[in-house]
Amino acid sequence: MAQLRQEADPDEAGLDPKALDRLDQYLAHYVDEGRLPGYLVSVARGGRVAHLTAHGARDRSAGLPVQPDTLWRIYSMTKPVTAVAVMLLVEEGRLSLDDPLDRHLPAFANPRVYEGGSGTEVTTRPADGPILIRHLLTHTAGLTFAFYHSHPVDALYRTAGLESSVPPGANLAETIDVYAGLPLQFEPGTQWNYSVASNVLGRVVEVVSGQPLDVFFAERIFHPLGMPDAGFHIVAEQAGRLSELYGETEGGGIEPIPGLPLHGRPRFLSGSGGMVATAYDYHRFAEMLRRGGELDGVRLLRPETVAQMTRNQLPGGADLRGFGASPHREPGNDGVGFGLGVSVVIDPDRTAAPAGPGTYGWSGVATTTFWIDPGRDLTVQFMTQVRPRTLKVFPELKRLVHEAVVD
User: Fold this and answer.
1) 46, 181, 393 from 116: Cα distances, Å
2) How many CA atoms lie within 13 A of 206 on its CB side?
3) DSSP E strand boundaries for 121-174
4) Burial class (CB in 10 A: 0-12, 13-18, 19+), 330
5) Starting at the edge strand that comes first in sequence, how are the strands of the sheet with 336-338 ordered?
6) Which of 12, 161, 251, 290 has CB atoms 3.0–4.6 Å from 167's, for a disulfide?
7) What's the pLDDT tens digit per position in 284-304?
8) Residues 208 and 94 sit within 8 Å (Cβ to Cβ)
9) Nearest to 192 by CA among 343, 91, 363
10) Phi, psi (deg, nearest 5) at residue 236
11) Per-position b or e across 388-399, b if 16+ CB within 10 A of its CB
């Protein structure tokens, strides 16, 4: 069975074992306090895993431990995979970053932009220009999420039944038509707002390729890279390895909550957050990016394409905090820009946690994350299954990994 394994000693990989012990102690403390059920953390240099810890439970009530082959709901870590799918089509000349979205999805012709008011009194105006494919990849299209509760357009998403980004019972095509009928929060390309854009990109992939999203991912990404457990659902023989999903309670503990339905092929294939994968699967995907689009002799993308994806694409070199009026203008976004499907560190002196210039990656809502630091030849991932309220593991996780690099 394919599972992640340690391939090198920390010393020979230029990592400090004592610092890695501190990392494990820090994370184990969260398990001991009952704030995490369990976790897996891996640190690789030059593609070789030099630190791998699986600790705690994947299912607390059943007493099942986290193991290297545990399956995780990776939620928004699906987005970089969707971005790679889009760039595969761009490289083939079947799609362009500057294509107007309505060329492929006619429902998005003649977009309208929020002008004022709220509820039934919202007023809109015609957009100055079309939504482009690059706007979707950079979250600058003017789309949003229903759960923000920070703008009148968010409320329109909730009224349209998009609390979970998909109307009950709808498939991807039907969901995208609902998005298209709602006003944009701002003029395309003028602000950054994390949004349902990757679901729209998933539908673009389907229309341009002529394949369902899960089939395209399997044939063009998962199978070539050797990601045997990655997908949008699990089969019976995988079910025992799936981690239980937990939510953080008001008191700081955790309790089981309903998770992304994975038993049986879903009607809604979410390019935004629909995937399940093991640490082995996602490590292979991340390593393909670190190596410039190639892994074990299989090339998915050209090095220039990966370089473009992992370079800040926000106009004027802005960071997430400074570009527009997103509800995500928080201190953690200082010094961090956005590429095509991934965040990118552009000013390490201003980031909330230590990071090398050009470090890129993304996270999922169940407290999963990955990043690649090209300057340190470092690939890191962290897997657990908790939807947080106040839990913030990542800044200290990044600091401790950063401190472990000694050469």
Assistant:
1) 52, 17, 38
2) 19
3) 123-126
4) exposed
5) 64-65, 48-59, 38-45, 378-383, 368-373, 360-364, 343-345, 336-338
6) 161
7) 999 999 999 999 999 999 999
8) yes
9) 343
10) -55, -40
11) beebebbeebbb
Report mean pLDDT in 10-residue bins for the chain, 407 residues.
92 97 98 97 97 98 97 98 98 98 98 96 97 98 95 97 95 98 97 96 98 98 98 96 96 92 94 98 98 98 98 92 58 86 95 92 98 97 96 95 94
Residue 137: its H or E element:
helix 133-137
- Quickly list H helices, 181-290: 197-209, 213-217, 223-225, 279-290
Burial class (CB in 10 A: 0-12, 13-18, 19+), 250: exposed
Q: Which long-range contacts (CB under 8 A, 24 or more apart) does 307-312 make?
A: 308/339, 308/340, 309/83, 309/84, 309/87, 309/339, 309/340, 309/341, 309/342, 310/339, 310/342, 310/344, 310/358, 310/360, 310/372, 310/374, 311/339, 311/344, 311/358, 312/337, 312/338, 312/339, 312/344, 312/346
Classify 26 in phi/psi space as left (phi over 0), alpha (psi -120 to 50) or beta.
alpha
Length of the chain: 407
**Predicted structure pTM score:** 0.97
∠ CA 31-371-132, nearest 5°, is 125
Q: How many whole angstroms from its chain centre is CA 374? A: 19
Give the pLDDT score at 243: 97
Q: Taking the CA of residue 15 as centre, how many other CA atoms within 13 Å lie in the half-sphere pointing to its CB?
A: 29
Query: What is the per-residue pLDDT for 324?
Result: 61
Tokens for 58?
């994947």
Backbone angles phi, psi at 124, to 5 degrees: -135, 170
Q: How many CA atoms lie within 13 A of 389 on its CB side?
A: 11
Position 326 scores a pLDDT of 52
Distance between CA atoms of residues 108 and 267, nearest Å? 22
- Cβ neighbours of residue 262 closer than 8 Å, sequence gap 6 or more: 73, 232, 233, 234, 242, 276
Would you call 338 helix, strand, or coil by DSSP? Answer: strand
- Residue-by-residue DSSP string for 219-237: IIIIHHHT-TT-BSSB-GG
- Cα(377)–Cα(87) distance, rounded to whole angstroms? 23
The reported pLDDT for the residue numbered 334 is: 87
Mapped onto helix, strand or coil, the DSSP state of residue 396 is helix
